[in-house]
Amino acid sequence: MPMTFVVPFDGSERSEMAIPYAVELARRCGGGVRVLRVMQSAIEGSSLPVSLQQTMRKRSQVELARAVGRHADGDIDVKGISKMGNVMDEITGAAVDASIVVMTTNGRTGLDRWVMGSVAEAVIRRVAVPVLIIRPPEKTSVAAARQGAGRILTDVLIPLDGSATADAALSVVPGLGREIRFHLLTVLSPGGPDPARVSSVLTAAAKRLTDGGHTVATATVEAPSPAKAIVDYAQKQGCSMIAMATHGRSGLSEIFLGSVTDRVLRTTGVPVLVVRPGRKLWAGGKRPLARVRK
Questions:
Q1: What pLDDT digit, counting tens, does each position of 174-190 carry?
Q2: Neighbouring C-beta atoms of residue 60, cutoff 10 Å
Q3: What φ, ψ does residue 95 adopt, rounded to 5°?
Q4: Are both 109 and 235 inside the same structural domain?
Q5: Confidence (pTM)
Q6: Are residues 34 and 134 in the same domain?
Q7: Which of 140, 142, 147, 292 is 20 to 30 A removed from 19 (C-alpha atoms)?
Q8: Residue 281 lies in a domain
């Protein structure tokens, strides 16, 4: 079944930088891209002159059309969707039929123009599919984003702690392509998992991937800060993506609490694919029913 990659777009160049990644994923995995532009419904009933409201809507549609046109690909179905309403509600609704949501964040206050808290963090909490977060450098360009997107599925780092939650990423990423080289990392921190158990977990996970035709590297590091260890490893190994769950659960360790994922998102320049527990990409062409969280 073809996959659909949804890109929330607010009209800024920064949010547009997610589109090349979605296009590249669609090219590798098969499927299409839907670029979503939402005009706040709050404009309705406002004191702004009707003519100004109409101008703003038209500008929004023009921005969307131009962005889609810049990333049009003869082999990939790239379409724009214009909506009027609440930003989060519209993104959540569009994600119901999506395989992955792809979006940018500045790592501090969310998307540049959608300034109602952190949109990216809210999307991760609410949607029922994995979310790929791109955090471009402060000074970069859409052209540079295209270059980065070209290697998105080369070396993927998956941190593991032995919990079923952290293991969720292993059910998502392999379906994106057999050419991926995997890096499986476990961080030993004070009070963390038993080293012998960690070795067993890594061996089992590596076998699962190699049996699927993937190249796998495993590593165990000792560090007081799991988030820093993950970010440092990704940088040193030249990883093109980090895939991790939003939190773990009691068991071998609890290093994958939301705070760890949040720190990784805010400090790494590597794209991060965030997977919620129990929310997996479809297997065998069938995806579990998406449930929209209010």
A1: 888 888 999 999 998 87
A2: 20
A3: -70, -20
A4: no
A5: 0.85
A6: yes
A7: 292
A8: no
